[in-house]
């Protein structure tokens, strides 16, 4: 019996060794086929001796319209891309409750007006009687108080009507200026909530750039400075002028906001396009060279970000990076990668540390 058990154990061990050897051989076979990759050398933005900053185009005059009341949307009268005029009705919200309240207020005004007119007549009558010494001072004081209270109730009723009328303005959303509808975030039947962006409108023709300048260079940027604005997506370089320089970076992560008004141009620029603003100010000697790589090459694992580089033995090596600002499709590398090093842009297979690669 014991001999039989030993035989089974030896057979099982033999199968296990055979299975492991088969797996190892398979892995070796997979590793023997290099993964074809495209490689690119790191480009350092250190050739430009002037201060540059990334920015985004936006319309000078734009508005995100919302409401102060809650209710279902009856109808939306515009679509994205429609041209609208100042005061044009854009959408309406169900206001049945407001109509009922206005009816109550109107009834209250009618009642208060009747009470005021009657109190005014009594007041004038007693005023004459008091002048003729046919009414006492106490009676005159009571009648005056009654008249003043009736007058106050009528004024309160009229002010309540003004309040209801103001609420109606939030039930009918109108265009604040001539412009174009750039977004519509609600449809008929949806519930509109107070403060919720419903429709966005912007006036075309006048654009500005919101740029972020690092603290090491902000002291050199002055209001009124003429700058060049590069819009890479349309391959255009526009002219502009600095109209505003922020004096605080408390809420912008150490970057100072600079506003640039663009000169009138025939270029097909749109809100949201990324730009590079070139200030005619020499970089400080301590300014470091900026390293940019495309965001498509970035590898993310949890909270870590990195990029695959090429080793001397033609294998993939994952290099962890510390990233900075984003410039359109590129991102700034603060540490982990130096100039003239190569990194993998794309691969015809799944990369991992130590994977054999072949550079195309």
TrEMBL record:
Domain CzcB-like barrel-sandwich hybrid: 63-191
Lineage: Bacteria, Pseudomonadati, Bacteroidota, Flavobacteriia, Flavobacteriales
Domain CusB-like beta-barrel: 210-279
Keyword Nuclease appears in the UniProt entry: no
Family statement drawn from the similarity comment of this UniProt entry: Belongs to the membrane fusion protein (MFP) (TC 8.A.1) family.
InterPro entries: Beta-barrel_RND_2, BSH_CzcB-like, RND_pump_MFP
Keyword annotations of the record: Signal
The organism of origin for this protein: Tenacibaculum adriaticum
GO molecular function: efflux transmembrane transporter activity
UniProt-recorded name of the protein: RND family efflux transporter MFP subunit
Signal sequence annotation: 1-22
Keyword check for GTP-binding: no
Source organism superkingdom: Bacteria
One Pfam family matching this protein: Beta-barrel_RND_2
Gene Ontology, cellular component aspect: efflux pump complex
């Amino acid at each position: 019996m014991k001999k039989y058990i030993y035989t089974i154990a030896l057979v099982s061990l033999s199968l296990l060794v055979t299975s492991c050897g088969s797996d190892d051989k398979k892995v070796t076979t997979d590793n023997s086929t290099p993964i074809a990759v495209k490689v690119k050398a790191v480009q350092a933005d250190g050739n430009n001796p002037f201060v540059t900053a990334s920015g985004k185009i936006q319309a000078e005059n734009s508005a995100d319209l919302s409401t102060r009341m809650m209710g279902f949307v009856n109808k939306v009268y515009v679509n994205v891309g429609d041209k609208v005029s100042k005061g044009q009705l854009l959408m309406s919200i169900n206001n049945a409750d407001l109509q009922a309240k206005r009816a109550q207020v109107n009834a209250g005004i009618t009642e208060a007006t009747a009470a005021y007119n009657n109190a005014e007549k009594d007041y004038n009558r007693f005023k004459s009687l008091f002048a003729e010494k046919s009414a006492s001072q106490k009676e005159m004081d009571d009648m005056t108080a009654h008249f003043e209270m009736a007058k106050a109730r009528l004024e309160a009723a009229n002010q309540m009507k003004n309040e209801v009328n103001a609420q109606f303005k939030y039930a009918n959303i109108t265009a604040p200026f001539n412009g174009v509808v750039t977004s519509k975030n609600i449809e008929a039947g949806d519930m509109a909530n107070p403060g919720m962006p419903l429709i966005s409108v912007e006036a075309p023709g006048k654009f500005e750039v919101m740029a972020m300048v690092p603290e090491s260079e902000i002291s050199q940027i002055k209001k009124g400075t003429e700058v060049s604005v590069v819009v890479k997506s349309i391959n255009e370089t526009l002219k502009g002028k600095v109209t505003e320089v922020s004096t605080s970076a408390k809420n912008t992560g150490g970057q100072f906001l600079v506003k640039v008004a663009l000169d009138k141009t025939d270029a097909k620029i749109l809100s949201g396009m990324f730009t590079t603003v070139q200030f005619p100010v020499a970089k400080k000697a301590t300014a470091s060279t900026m390293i940019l790589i495309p965001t498509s090459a970035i590898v993310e694992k949890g909270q870590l970000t990195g990029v695959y580089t090429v080793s001397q033995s033609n294998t993939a090596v994952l290099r962890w990076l510390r990233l900075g600002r984003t410039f359109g499709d590129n991102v700034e590398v603060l540490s982990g990668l130096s100039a003239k090093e190569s990194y993998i842009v794309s691969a015809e297979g799944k990369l991992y540390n130590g994977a054999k690669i072949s550079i195309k």
